[in-house]
Amino acid sequence: MDSLSIWRRFDYVLFAATAALVVFGILMIDSATQDAIDDDIISRVPDQIRFALIGFAVAISVAAIDYRLLGGISPWLYGVMVAMLILVRYFGVEGAGGATRWLNVGIRIQPSEIGKIIMIITLSQYVAARYLDLGRLTTVFGTMLHMAIPAALIFDQPDLGTTIVFLVIWAVIVWSAGLRIKHIMLFLSAGLVILIIVFPLLPTYQQARVETFLAPDTESGAYYNIEQALISIGSGGLLGKGYYVGSQNTGRFLRVRHTDFIFSVIAHEFGMLGGVALLAMFALVLSRILRGAREASDPLGSMICYGVAAMIFFQTTVSVGMNLNLMPVTGLTLPFVSSGGTSLLFTMVGIGLVQSVIARRRRLNA
After folding, report:
1. Distance (Å, rounded) from C-alpha 49 to C-alpha 53?
2. Band of residue 302 on the pLDDT scale cut at 50, 70, 90
3. Which of 160, 229, 232 is nearest to 201 (CA)?
4. Contact criterion met (CB below 8 Å) for 48 and 339
5. How far apart are CA 9 and CA 295, in angstroms?
6. What residues contact residue 208 under an 8 Å CB cut-off, 6+ apart?
């Protein structure tokens, strides 16, 4: 396929919607970090801008690459992912809350964020190569093992939120490939048993997040962030307090407002209409990705699109849900919007993969 055909088929609506979310995210991070005195917080906006520019360049570059070539080197990609996660185990940099999730290679990178995209590519290739055998339980177990090795390494960091993202990516990809209902019920039952066994092994702060969600203790420190998030969202009303002037934000009542609770800042400053508009933009992004999945030229392309959509949808749902106290606090970023260079960069790689699939789709209809 010539380069002209690729760019003629490029989804400019998806690209524009993604760009709008990224720019809006930078503006909200700027508001959330105003008057900061900590060097790490002060650097968040320039860092986000730098990663955004790199992300757009990388997304366009990935779109120009035939995604089937990436599928062909999936064993190497899988090996790199596992190797990076093992390096985190022994040479990782400790961050907030005592979690060890980063590697310092001149800049700090988070291999689990890179791993999400690699998992989408490699699991999609694994399933596509066994597309007609997915009815066999041994094949399904193979897909689970493919996912479970890196997921276990991420869980050990500890990072429960990203571990669940890996599970969701696995579930959506095998579901889109035609996983049988009886297998779904089997694995749901097994997942419930594993959850009951694993919960006591979680770090104390993660157990506290779940317990605070299930049985809120308004006097506990763990409930403070949730309470302030609800106050921020509620006080925003219909139209909000205004950009850069929300008292919950400027008064620093709302903690980690540039990452975990950035949706609360948005609802506080732009009100319910601003929050709904943001969700509508995410819905547009997801609808374009799902359109790409439907029109993909092969199962590999379709499953890559479904995997990227699953990642964005789940993280958005959890991030917004925990701000509304509808879900436990997990620390997952709001895609494109929350502060986090590696997360933004590799979410843009995911968009580039989708664009690669779209550029090589079956038909050219608008």
Report:
1. 6
2. very high
3. 160
4. yes
5. 12
6. 220, 222
Give, rounded to a whole angstrom, the gap between the first and last alpha carbons of the chain.
19
Instruction: Return the exposure string of 279-290: e unless at least 16 CB atoms fall within 10 Å of the residue's CB, then b.
Output: eebbebbbebbb
Strand partners, 108: 104
Amino acid at the residue 136 = R
The residue whose two tokens read 């199962």 is 299
Closest CA to 264 of 232, 290, 236, 295: 232
What per-residue confidence (pLDDT) applies to 61? 95
User: 70: which 2 tokens?
Assistant: 């990436």
Contact 275, 235 (CB under 8 A): no
Tokens 């339980």 appear where? Answer: 137
Using only the alpha carbons of the chain, give its radius of gyration: 20
The burial class, CB within 10 Å (0-12 / 13-18 / 19+), for 86 is middle
Predicted confidence band of residue 364 (pLDDT cuts 50, 70, 90): very low
Which pLDDT score is estimated for 247? 82
CB 207 within 8 A of CB 199: yes
- Residue with tokens 């900061």, as numbered in its chain: 36
**Domain coordinates of the chain in residue numbers?**
3-359
How many CB atoms lie under 10 A from the CB of residue 185?
10
Sheet hosting strand 108-109, strand order edge to edge: 93-94, 100-104, 108-109
pLDDT tens column, 306-327: 999 999 999 999 999 999 988 8
Strands 93-94 vs 100-104: parallel, antiparallel or unpaired:
antiparallel
Residue-averaged pLDDT of the chain: 87
The amino acid that residue 146 corresponds to is H
Calculate mean pLDDT across residues 273-300.
96
Which residue from 132, 124, 183 is spatially nearest to 307, judged by alpha carbons?
124
Alpha helix segments (H runs only) across the chain: 3-9, 12-32, 39-42, 44-64, 67-72, 74-91, 111-129, 137-155, 160-176, 181-198, 204-214, 224-236, 247-250, 262-295, 299-323, 341-359
